[in-house]
Fold each of these.
Amino acid sequence: MQNRCILRVGMRGLIRWTMVLSLLAVASPVWGHSQAASADAVRAAFIYRFLFFIEWPPDTFPNPQSPLDLCVLGSLDDSAKVTALGAKRTRSRAIRVRSIRRGDAATACHVLYVPGSSTLPVRYRGLRGVLTIGDGEDFLAQGGVIQMVVQRRRIRFYLGDNEAQRAGLKVSSQLRAVALRGRP
Amino acid sequence: MSLAQRLNKAPLRHKLTALVMLTVAVSLGSVGAVFVGFDLLRLRTQLEVRVQQQALEAAFHSRAAVGFKDTAVAEQTLQAFATTDDILQAAIFDAEGTLFARYRRQPSPATGLATHAPAWRGVRWTRSALESAEAVVIDGEELGVVWVQSDRNRLNTRAAYFVVTAILVLLIAFGLTFFVSAHLQHLVLAPLIALDAQAQAHYGDLGAGLGAADDESSALAAAFHRMFEEAKSRERELGEARTRAEAANRRLKKQIELQESTEDQLRQSQKMEAVGRLAGGIAHDFNNLLVVILGFGEILRDELDGDHKIAARHVVDAGKRASDLTRQLLTFSRKSQGQARVIGLDPVVNALEPLLRRLLGETIDLDVSLGSQERSIFADPVHIEQILMNLTINARDAIGGNGKILVRTRVRSDDQSAGGGHLQIEVTDNGPGMSDHISRRVFEPFFTTKPEGRGTGLGLSTVYGIVQTLGGEITLESVVGRGTTFYVELPESVLTPPDVTRSIPVPQERPCDATILLVEDEDSVRIFVEQCLVRAGYKVLLATNGEEALQIMNTGPDKVALVLSDVVMPKLGGVELMERLAETCPTLPVLLMSGYPGGHLDDSSALPEGVDLIRKPFRAVQLLERVSAALHPVSNDTQQPTLS
């Protein structure tokens, strides 16, 4: 009598766990993908916010309405969220998103985003009037201005003061206050 | 006792103090309320602006923190409120409305923290605090909301401070006002209180008088009321007294005028009386002289021839003129009665009209208007003629050229009843008129305005004398430049005039051998009369006064057929003689000779029967006629007036 009870309980538990596991199996790829997509969106949002708090050298734009060129290293398809910024405007400038490839001649970019672990192309290191943003671990060391990192599941960033100064960019104190202290 | 009653009973100084303090309280209170109100309103606005600024600043400084979702930096930003003394708490909400960062002042306020983002923006007051909510905006995108809560106590504290200050100021002001008004009200009220004390002393306590209040002012008002009443009553009495006095004054003035007028008349009549007496006296003596002059003159004239006769005629003519003058004088002195009888006024005037026209000449337009309505007067018609002639001649001379004279007779307007009234003769000229000064003297004898030699000055005085004799009155109205009117008023006779168809007595030739007793004190006159009578054939007995005459009569009364006597004589006058003779010889005729009857004879008509009067001066012919008539009287009943 007691065994039957146990058996019955065991049967029910087995069924339940099976259902949970099977749900997990189906859901896990979806979860992982969703998390990655959210991080990209935050990065794109960060890049968009950086544009507001950075001031380019006075001779960079011919006029206040001149569009801002946002260049992305690599395929635009890999950086869909950043590419979507092309629909937005910053300080009344239109944002033009372009893709550049390593080895291309340095073109007129105001912002260069280097996604993933890619290194900053040499031509753009310390290039005046270009805000370089990257995700790579040594991006600041490579001469980039802003390096985004993930800390405690939150995206944060380092700000290279010297690099920014070398590129002729003025960084808002508010942005500096939000940036992580020191260098990675 | 209610408050209102107590207020009524309160003395004036307490009321004044209360009034002053109330005024100060109201004015200070209202002014203070306005200032405090403005200040609190300003403070409220300041607080609102301040808290909104705090919220806006926090929203601005937390842009990056909110944009990059950095809670630590956001809270660090909010921590800046710790330096302020009024921000109680603050919070930042993200775009989704969830709490992102917060700040709480230590010690933690009792009011609850907002747990979700406010939907409103700006500033709002709650029961216990002032709040503001402002959006955190980056590049036009609202990323969140900053909410700030400020302490309301600051406003409350300020208000309480004001209230306390206001109460303190009011208290001080009250104290000062009380002090000042208590000391200064004496200045205002002292005269009033003194007046009240005087009124009380005068009228006693009048109690609650007129006003609603019951203080010095009401007592004063009562006193004043009483004073006014008394003054009014006094004024009324005064007015009545004045009216009485005025009436008395008017009466007095009238009396004075009357008296002056009477005195004036009296003086005038006295003057005229004196002049008349003088003239009469002179006339008397003159008449005696004239009897002699005329008498002997005529004898000489009759008996002389040639140049002597002419000279004697001149003497007689001059004597006649002198005789006329003395007669006029006598007329003026009212001693000449003439032959008065009852006559109609209008017939006399009517009969005289042609003569007047001739007298006045072509240059004068004479208008005669008769209106005495067949009424009669008692007078000698000669006198009436004299009146008219003198007045019209006087008028003519006054006109001195072309002019108009109106003669009017009428019954005096206020005397229409027949008998006992007055008839009026009115003579009006349009000459130059005369001044008051002249008009007062025109009736004086020898007063004339005519050139020397033209007038005797006796015309109007003669008129005056006649009128006086007739018991009438003469007045005149004269306006310089317009003319003069004389009014002669004569008493109307109750008798009607007799028929004019009377028999003229025919002198009868009688023997002139009768004995005549001649009584005359003037030698010359006596001699003249004696000569006349003797020449006419009469026997003459002579006496120089009445006593002598009586002695003669006593010795041989039977011989004397007529007594011819002077009137004014020493010892016994003619009238007295006549009266004595009337006792002893009632039938003896007496003929009186008078140059100036004086007081001896007032009215010839009053002479008793058988007594006649001949006026000096007379001529021999006239004397003999009268002597003859007296010796042989003719029955002439028709001459006696009859009652109508």
Amino acid sequence: MPEAQTKVKILGWRYENIRGLETMDVNLESQDHTPYPITLIMMPNGQGKTTTMELLLAAFTGGAEHWGRDQVLELRPPGSTANSGEFQLRLLIDGQRFVVTLELDYQTGSASYATTRIDISGGKEPGHNLPSSLKHVFKDQFVKRFIFDGELVKDILNGSKDEAEKTIRYLHNLDRLEELAVAIDHVKDDMQRERETASRTDRGLTRLRNQRDEAFGQMRQLQTRLAQLESQFNEATTQLEQRETFLQHRLAQSEQLQRRYEESQRQLETVRRDLVLKGQAAIASFREPTMANRLIFSRLNQLSSRLQRLKLPESTSRQFFTELAEEEFCVCGRPIRSTERDAILSRAESYLGHDEYGVVNAIKQEIRNSTYDDSLTDTINNLTELLTEESRHLSELRRIELEQENSGDDDVRQAAEERDVLRAKLTSLDEKIPSFQLALKTAKDNYESLQRKFNEATQTVEFIRKADKLKDITRQTSAAALRNLKATIIENTNRRIADVIHLEKISVEAIDGHLKLAGKGGASQGQSLAIAYSFLGSLFANSAFGLPFVVDSPAGPLDLEVRHEVATMLPGLFDQLILLVMSGEREAFADPFYQLAGVQFLTVVKDSSGPHCVAEIETFKKFQGGKEDI
Amino acid sequence: MNPEIARAIDDVCNSLDTDELRRAVSRLLYNALNNQFRTSDILSVIELMQSEDNDA
């Protein structure tokens, strides 16, 4: 547990003139005025829950001031003549009471805030004034990790998403180190602009800056496009894996097909291994030209013989004439004057130098020592046969897949069609991505080169170098912190998983964007959720803030058996747990909570006086609510 | 400060050349994580890096 954790608890909230919820209070305080550790709020399906999540998010972040007119007016009850609406969130922060009021002006379509610090100033002050330790923390992405959409929990284990890593970053404010890196860039820009202004007359500098900015724009465009393609690739890979797993599973149900399929796949793997080995041998042989074919070998031998006959004495090398030009007399006894000297030096270039002479000799030697055999031809023939064999096994696998598809099972046919589409998509992306990587590298080199020239022109080379070093230190720190945090979070998560999943040994091996489980076996849907909630619980326990955890539809898409499993584990994970549930979710999910102490059951019911909140367990148990109730 | 993050700052800053620079960079990183840094803090660290290079 980190030192001095800032504790935040929700004491309740109040709606006034809000669509679907009208005017109503939701109180989470027990008789001793402390919040219940767990509250289940039954709300009819439809706007009630979604609106509540939206208002809670806005009350924490202070972001409603940027809402557009339509977003504000959507909250006005239909047919209402009310000019204003309000959402009040009551909080307990480190033992002190705060009320954040989100004021909605339905006439102007605007939103504003007021804050009451009950234990400090007592009065209502305009603005969103939470303690400074929280004000800068409660940003949209951060708050969404504890005002949580239950559907998002699946993303924590989804290989194509990086939800798990993002959550660690947000809850530990590591993004602030990225903000520091951006601020360092601004300092660099300011310094360069200052120097540029000092030499305003230099048009070349302006041109250089424009070129650099344009190159930066191109680089960014390519980065974005490449990231999109890579994300599509990862997503398609995950989807393909799912379809293939499904098809494998169905295939296993037909033993004969399965046996044929496994045999073909085994043979295909053997052929592919041989292909790699023979391919490497062929590449090695290609490096010896004499081995390429018999005709080349014979021609090279002829060349070697002629080189032997033409054997040049070393003394006729270029160096001989260069040295001769420095003499007073030629070898024939005639004096060497400047005319002769110039002629000798210019013609010396026509002869081989020592280095070139050495190369020619090495070639001669190499040819003389070489022999020819048919090994390369054999290797190539072998490779051709292996490729034919590979293609035969692939056809056999495809035939088995088709047999399976034609077995009359619509699910299999659909999965097979989707698999084929995904394979085609992956092939196309696989071809596209390298060209974008290359283009990005070129664009990056171009940008860096222009940036260097600009630095030189503005005489900020040294300053920029140091600023970049500082930026590098910032990023290294962020990476090291993330690495350390991941190690601790994995350890804590696995401890929690062991507490809730007893029958099987399941553990998190790594956090690589998403949670990676140890071993090849996957987890059931219920286990996946148990793992994801264990992760979130560990993360919260380890962060600088003790936060409430509000989940919308925690059991929505789950089977009854799984719901029970998830409901049993949730209470131990968070200090304050608020679950917004529908009547359809109650079965199997609510049962474990009925047995626990310190749980409050609220039900939003609607009667002639409008919607109100009933704090009775029996009402909660019996309530049947659909969209028509509100 | 979370101990894992504090350890990361110490590890990275330990590779810096002088105590003064280690202290300045470490302070800047702590302040950044607490959302309390100013542009002048960045400039001071860069200047310190330059002057230490010149001394060397």
